[in-house]
Structures are given as structure tokens and as C-alpha cells.
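Write out this protein's structure.
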Amino acid sequence: MRSVLFSGLSLIVVGIAFVAWAMFTGNVAVSGWLKSNEGTLTAVSTIVIALFTVILAVSTWKLFSSTERLVTGADDTARRQLRAYLGVGAEDLAFDTPGENDPKYVPFDPAKPVIGEIFKDFIAVKVRNFGQTPAHDVVVFSYLYVGPPSSRPDAKVFVQDENKDTISAKDVRPFISRAVLQPQQSEISKSPLNDVGPLKKARDRVESIYVAGRIYYKDIYNRTWRTKFCYAWEPWHPSGARFVPFEVYNGEDDGSFPDEPAAKPARAD
């Protein structure tokens, strides 16, 4: 496009120079030819100028579009660099399960919840903000997955449970925490465990244990993000119990934020 624009401009300049030369030198033959073809030359000149104007307009539009893309790209890059990034590592997962050592332990039955019942056993997830700006409305959902010894669950097992990430409106429900994480700050979120029996079996290598879940949050641009994590638990490892990143379901997307229940009116006592 630049070469066409330059050629057109050169042609116009040459034409103007030729006419000026003829008029200046008083060349009778050339002057007569110019006069006899004045109408045609005027039409040709008009077409050339119009064509040049169109080319100039297209070039200007392309330059504007390129500049706009550069500005948009720079803005997107700045947002990626500045926004919050939440995640967990193997060292950020733990089981807080005093029920394992309680001789009177009874698993919690979610089908028969009791008002005021206190959970004592949890999956503890330490969430870290690796970004440069705060993360808002941070909510964590984590779950225990149990399988046969040395099993390798498919990613579909974790994906199909994403609809479990809801904030319950029931009168009896687990407490869901919501936090603001400043840059380089961490917070521990706990999800209740209904039964610690599988943990004991995993230590005896009778069952395999996986901890998977999702972290929902909003960045300073009010965009919603979801960090997915999945770790295998190896309590039998020679150097001590450890969590190891599983081969699937570790990443990030812009998943929708969990629906919240409608607020109930306060009771007047």
C-alpha cells in the first residue's frame, strides 16, 4: 500500500512539473496540445486525485487500526501483569483431622444435619496471591476423592463435580468464608470432611486419596477467575506424607462465580 501511495504521489508531482515546464519555456507544441486536451487532462487529473485520496484514506484507516491494536494489546498486557493470581502448592495442603485419633469418632451424616453441630475435621488449603494487586471475593471449594489403590481418575471425575460449588441457602450448612487477599498474602480455607475413615485406609494403602477443588476470585478489574487444583496424597511415602500435583485438572480459567442464595430478611425478636 505504501508503494502504491508513493507511485501515485510521484505521478502527480511529475505531471505538475511537466505542465509548469511547458508554461515556463513557452513550448508552443506542448502548450497547444495541453489546451486542445484540457478537458481530458482535467478529468484524468480528477480521477488521479480521487484515487490518491482513497489510497490515503485507506492508509490512514490502517494506521489508526494498527495503533488501536497496539493500545489494546498494551492495555491487555498491563492487566495481565498487574492482576491478582491465586494458587496453591503441594506444601499448602493439609488434613486437620483430630477425629482420626478420637475413639468415640462418628462420621457426619449430611442427610441428617443437626443445628449447631460443629465440624472438627477439615481439608485445609492455604491460598496465596502471587499477583501484584488484591484479589476480592475469594471463595474456596475443596473435596476429597477416594478410589482403589493406585487408581488414576480421569479429569471428567473432577469436571462433573464443578456444579457442587454452590453457596447453600439451607438453615444447616457448612460455613463458607470469603476473603480479600493482598499481594503476596495467604489465607487458609477449610472445607469440612464428613468421614476420616478413608484417610486411615489410605495410610494402609487400601485406598487412594485425591484432593481437588477450585478457587474463585475477582481481580481489580472486576473480572472473575477460577483456579483449579488437584493433588494426590501419598501418606505412605518414605520421607513422610506428602501431596503431589496430579497430571490433570491444574490450571486457570474465567469460570462463573458460584451463585449466592437470596438474602433472608432479619428476624424481629
